[in-house]
C-alpha cells in the first residue's frame, strides 16, 4: 500500500486530486490497486512532455551512401557474418502498438497479409528469423516486445502456430509499460471505474522494458553485442543483414540507422540530421513545409534522409544509458480517447526509440533501397496499407526473378510471393533459384 499522504501530496502538486476523489468511491481491493498504480506513475514527466526545439540549423550526419556501401560491402558483410556466427546478434521486433489506424482489435502481427499463403505478419517476421538461424547455424534470439494491449494475444498466436518453427524459447516475449493519457486540461482520465486510461508507452518503451524484463542483462551475458531492431508492421524489414551488423561492428557504433532517399519533401518520415554536433532524428511534425525544403550551401537537401525505423543498437550502449539512469522523454499527440464515462479528445503520451540517437557518441547512417526493405502496414486503405505493402513485396520478388533471368509479365492484379524460408534476401534467392520456371505470367508462390 503506498503512503497515502505522500500520494495525496504528489497528486495535488500535479493537479490530479480528482483521482483521489475517485479512489474514495472504490472499495477495498479496487481502491488499493488503483492507488498503487497512481503511486507508480511519474506525474512530473506527464506534466512536462518534451517540447523539442525545431532543428533549424541542421548539419550533415555521417551516412554511408550507395557508393560507399558498394565499395565496402565485402568487408562489412564479412564482419557481420562473423558476428552472426559468433552468436553476437539478436533481433528485436517491437509489436506493442495499438494499430488504431489499421482498425483491427487484434495485434497487427496477427493480420493475414501474404497474398497466396495467407501468412500473418507475425509468421513472415518469425520465418525471417528462422531462415537466418538456419543459415548461420544457431538460434538467433528473437525478442518480441508486446504491450498490455497485445501481449496475451501475441503469445497465444505464436503458441498456436508452434512459434512458426522457431526453436523452443527462441522467441522471447516481454511487455512494455504504459503511460496515462490525459485530457486537454492536463487531468488524467479513467478507462473504467478504478482504472486509469493508459496507452502503451511508445516504441521507445522498449529500452526500459528490455532492462526491466531482464532481457538486456541476459543478452549481455550471452555475448550479444548487436540488436537488429525492426517494427512489426514493416513486412520487408530485413533481419538477415550482415552489412548492417558489420558496419556497427566496424565503426564501433552505438547505433546505425538505416535511411532512405525521401520520395518527396513532404513525405511523413523522420529525418537523420546532425543538430548541435549530435545525430538526431527530426520528425516531419517538427518541421514546416519550408524547412523540409532547405538546402546546405552545397545544394544538398538538409532533410534528405528519411528514417524507415530500422536500426542496429549496441547492447553496451543501451546498457550504458540504463546505468546512468537515462529515461526517454514523453511526446504527446492529440487523439480521440476512449475515456470513461465519455469519449473525449486528449493527449496520448509516448516515448520514441529514435530519441536515443542523440545520446549516441557514435552514430552512423546507411542508405537502403526503399523497395527492398520498406513496406509498412499502417492504414486500412490507401498509402501504407496492406494492399500497398503486398504490392511492394511482390515487386521486390519480381526483381529477384528477373535478376535470375526469369521472364516476368504480370497482369495488374497478379502477385508474386516468395517465402522467407525459400529465400529471405536477394542473394539467397539467386543462390537457391533452380530455374524451375522460365517465365512467370500470373500469380506465383514459392514456399520451399
Ligand atoms: P506506430 O507508431 O505506427 O503505431 O508504431 P501503431 O500502434 O502500430 O499504429 P497506430 O498509430 O495506433 O495506428 C510503429 C511500430 O512501433 C510499435 C508498433 O507495434 C509498430 O511496430 N509500437 C508502437 C510499440 O511497440 N509500442 C507502442 O507503444 C507504439
Key terms:
single chain; 448 residues; 3 domains; eleven-stranded mixed β-sheet; 15 helices; 22 strands; binds uridine 5'-triphosphate
Provide structural commentary:
The chain is α/β, with parallel strands linked by helices. The chain has 3 domains: 40 residues, no CATH class; 334 residues, Spore Coat Polysaccharide Biosynthesis Protein SpsA, Chain A; 64 residues, no CATH class. Helices cover 33% and strands 20% of the residues. It is built from 15 helices and 22 strands. Strands 1, 2, 3, 4, 10, 11, 12, 13, 14, 15 and 18 form an 11-stranded mixed β-sheet that branches. A 3-stranded antiparallel β-sheet has the order 6-17-16, with no helix packed on it. A two-stranded antiparallel ribbon has the order 5-9. Helix 6 links the parallel strand 2 and strand 3. Helix 5 crosses helix 10 and helix 9 crosses helix 12. The chain is globular. It binds uridine 5'-triphosphate. Uridine 5'-triphosphate (UTP) binds next to loops.
Summarize the structure.
By secondary structure, the protein is an alpha/beta fold.
Estimate nothing, just give the exact number of structural domains: 3
Overall pLDDT confidence: 96
So what's the overall shape? globular
Distinct helical segment count: 15
State Rg: 23 Å
Bound chemical compounds: uridine 5'-triphosphate
Helix content range: 25-40%
N/C terminus separation: 57 Å
Low-confidence stretches: none
Instruction: Let me know the number of strands.
Output: 22
What is the correct CATH architecture of the largest domain? Alpha-Beta Complex
The CATH superfamily title of the largest domain: Spore Coat Polysaccharide Biosynthesis Protein SpsA, Chain A
Strand residue percentage = 15-25%
Supply the helix-strand structural class.
Answer: alpha/beta
Just give the CATH class of the largest domain: Alpha Beta
**Main beta sheet strand tally, sense and closure:** 11 strands, mixed
Output the CATH topology of the largest domain: Spore Coat Polysaccharide Biosynthesis Protein SpsA, Chain A
Amino acid at each position: 500500500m503506498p503512503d497515502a499522504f505522500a500520494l495525496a501530496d504528489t497528486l495535488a502538486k500535479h493537479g490530479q486530486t480528482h483521482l483521489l476523489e475517485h479512489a474514495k468511491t472504490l472499495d477495498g481491493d479496487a481502491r488499493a490497486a488503483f492507488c498503487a498504480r497512481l503511486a507508480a506513475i511519474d506525474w512530473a514527466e506527464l506534466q512536462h512532455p518534451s517540447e523539442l526545439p525545431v532543428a533549424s540549423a541542421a548539419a550533415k550526419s555521417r551516412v554511408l551512401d550507395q557508393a560507399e556501401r558498394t565499395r565496402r560491402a565485402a568487408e562489412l558483410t564479412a564482419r557481420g557474418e562473423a558476428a552472426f556466427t559468433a552468436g553476437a546478434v539478436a533481433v528485436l521486433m517491437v509489436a506493442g502498438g495499438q494499430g488504431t489506424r489499421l482498425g483491427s482489435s487484434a495485434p497487427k502481427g496477427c493480420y493475414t497479409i501474404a497474398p497466396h499463403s495467407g501468412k500473418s505478419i507475425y509468421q513472415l517476421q518469425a520465418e525471417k528469423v528462422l531462415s537466418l538461424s538456419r543459415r548461420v547455424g544457431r538460434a538467433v534470439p528473437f525478442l518480441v516486445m508486446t504491450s498490455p494491449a497485445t501481449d496475451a494475444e501475441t503469445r497465444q498466436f505464436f503458441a498456436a502456430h508452434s512459434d512458426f518453427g522457431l526453436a523452443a524459447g527462441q522467441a522471447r516475449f516481454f511487455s512494455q509499460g504504459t503511460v496515462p493519457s490525459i485530457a486537454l486540461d492536463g487531468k488524467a482520465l479513467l478507462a473504467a471505474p478504478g482504472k486509469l486510461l493508459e496507452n502503451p508507452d511508445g516504441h521507445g518503451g522498449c529500452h526500459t522494458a528490455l532492462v526491466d524484463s531482464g532481457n538486456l542483462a541476459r543478452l549481455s551475458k550471452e555475448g550479444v553485442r548487436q540488436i537488429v531492431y525492426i517494427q512489426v508492421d514493416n513486412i520487408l524489414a530485413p533481419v538477415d543483414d550482415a552489412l548492417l551488423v558489420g558496419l556497427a561492428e566496424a565503426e564501433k557504433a552505438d547505433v546505425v540507422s538505416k535511411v532512405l532517399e525521401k520520395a518527396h519533401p513532404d513525405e511523413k518520415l523522420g529525418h537523420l540530421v546532425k543538430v548541435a554536433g549530435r545525430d538526431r532524428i527530426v520528425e516531419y511534425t517538427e518541421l514546416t513545409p519550408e524547412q523540409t525544403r532547405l538546402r546546405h550551401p552545397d545544394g544538398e537537401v538538409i532533410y534528405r534522409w528519411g528514417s524507415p525505423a530500422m536500426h542496429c543498437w549496441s547492447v553496451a550502449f543501451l546498457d550504458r544509458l540504463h546505468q546512468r539512469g537515462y529515461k526517454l522523454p514523453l511526446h504527446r499527440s492529440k487523439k480521440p480517447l476512449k475515456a470513461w464515462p465519455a469519449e473525449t479528445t486528449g493527449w496520448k503520451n509516448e516515448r520514441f526509440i529514435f530519441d536515443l540517437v542523440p545520446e549516441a557518441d557514435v552514430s552512423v547512417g546507411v542508405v537502403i533501397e526503399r523497395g527492398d526493405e520498406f513496406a509498412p502496414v499502417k492504414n486500412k486503405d490507401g498509402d501504407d496499407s496492406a494492399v500497398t505493402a503486398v504490392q511492394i513485396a511482390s515487386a521486390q520478388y519480381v526483381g529477384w526473378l528477373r535478376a535470375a533471368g526469369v521472364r516476368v509479365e504480370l497482369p495488374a492484379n497478379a502477385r508474386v510471393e516468395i517465402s522467407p524460408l525459400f529465400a529471405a534476401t536477394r542473394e539467397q534467392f539467386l543462390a537457391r533459384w533452380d530455374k524451375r520456371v522460365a517465365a512467370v505470367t500470373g500469380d506465383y508462390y514459392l514456399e520451399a
